Amino acid sequence: MKSIFAEPTQSELTVRKINILKSPKKGGSSDMDAIPYIEELGIQIFRNIQPIQFTPNINEHIHRWAPYVQGFSASFVQSILDQYKEDYNYPVVLDPFAGCGTVLVQAKLNGHTSCGTELNPFLQFIANTKLNCWDVFPNYLLRVYNDLPRNNRSLAPSFLKSDSHFSKAVLHNLEVIKGGIESIEEKKEMQRKVKDLINLAFSSILIDCSNLKRTPCLGYCKNKRVYDTAPFVLLDKKIREIANDLRLIQSQYRNFINRESKVILANAMDFEHINKFDLIITSPPYMNGLDYVMNYKIEMGWLGFVKNHKELKRIKDEMVVCDNVSKGLIKEFCRSGLTYSNDWIEKIKAEIEGNIEKRGSYRRTDMPYIVHKYFDDLYKVMKKVVTSLNSGGRFILVVGDSLIADVYVPTDLLIAKIGLDLGLDVEKIEKARERRSGQIRSYKLRESIITLLKR
């Protein structure tokens, strides 16, 4: 039967929409496209659906102190620790992409020593505060907070568009709070810890007080209504939430309060660990995922971790590459010559390049080299941390695959292949979640858990 709705003409369609309509990947899946790679590796992908996203953490003690869109769930980390508790009596845990510290906090709650690296100074601050302020007395936190002066207004960071991010009254109240926090003395360690907790709480309310939303990328929310008093109301609620969690920690986890747990501000691609680890649990940035710097620029600016956009770009350029990096960075990578590759990467690059040529238009013509740099970056990280993994230790990664210019990129299987190149065994790969391609919504992608074993 002919549709009563007129089909759009070619002139009414953008090039991107035309390519989506013509895509051979419509209705397809990564499970089918992965078969040749799986057969070459000689492995299987097991179905093990489970909650791996950060969302459940909003109800978890400590984890809920600061929102983190792309982290994974505390329950997932706990399942890993439980799974291997017979193999390692007192495991030392590493997360090379620490983020807001989910892995390390959960390890500490189990009494395990842990360490992480994080390149974003704001996230490193959040993780360290969540890990190392367990000994702050709740009443002391509340007393310092309640005594904050309201006559020391500190202006919003000048490089951010704060006048459009916040209403005039809300912005004024945030500046009042910021000034009050800055007046807290730091002569003693406990004063510094309380100031860190209040700064953490302050950072956690900024987006809720703004005209913005993070779902998951940062953007304006047209119909959002924020009351003038929101900064005071939300901060008060967050401080009391933290105080309640501290009471719980000091009653139920007091034996673990001083357990060594730290996050080092460093690039995992070149950081040399002096300690040895039994478990490495992490989730590297996804290739077509979030911009982990620009998505947190509000918090980074307000807490003073960056002073301008140049500093934001410098941090972004040092991170594992994603698909919105500068063209100059990719050109520099191509000129360097000293890169990791394998036959799969070269095949995928050639297919992406060929498809871009056929299309005649694509948002990034250098996408083949972005893909190459992504896996080169991960190789560098894996090479560094594998040397610090004890014999019998496990390297567990949560990753998502991609569809780029109608070319399937099996991220999990490529990481497994890199692991083999580094002398690790592929113990198992599990499909934890199904998701959709951002370009071809009918194409099914997967999120996987890769477990690599060091003999």
Give a quick set of tags describing it.
two-stranded antiparallel sheet, 8-stranded mixed sheet, 455 residues, 17 helices
What does this structure look like?
There is one protein chain. With 455 residues, the chain is of the alpha/beta class. It has a domain at 135-252 and 295-306. 42% of the residues lie in helices and 15% in strands. It has 17 helices and 12 strands. The strands form 3 sheets. It has an 8-stranded mixed beta sheet, with helices on both faces. Strands 4-5 form a two-stranded antiparallel sheet. Strands 9-10 form a two-stranded antiparallel sheet. Helix 5 links the parallel strand 2 and strand 3 (114-118). Mean pLDDT is 93; it is low at 1-8.
Order of helices and strands: HHHEHEHEHHHHHEEHEEHHHHHEEEHEE
> Terminal Cα separation, in Å?
62 Å
Structural class by secondary-structure content: alpha/beta
List the strand order in the largest sheet: 1-11-12-8-7-2-3-6
Radius of gyration: 23 Å
> How many helices does DSSP assign?
17
β-strand percent reads 5-15%
Count of extended strands: 12
Low-confidence stretches: 1-8
Percent helix, as a range, is 40-55%
Largest sheet, in brief, is: 8 strands, mixed
Shape call: globular
* Arithmetic mean pLDDT: 93
Blueprint of the fold:
Layout: H1 15-22, H2 30-33, H3 35-41, E1 45-47, H4 74-83, E2 93-95, H5 102-109, E3 114-118, H6 121-132, H7 138-146, H8 162-165, H9 168-182, H10 189-205, E4 212-214, E5 218-220, H11 230-252, E6 261-265, E7 277-282, H12 297-302, H13 309-318, H14 327-336, H15 343-359, H16 367-386, E8 389-400, E9 402-404, E10 407-409, H17 411-421, E11 425-436, E12 444-453
Parallel strand pairs: 1-11, 2-3, 2-7, 3-6, 7-8
Antiparallel strand pairs: 4-5, 8-12, 9-10, 11-12
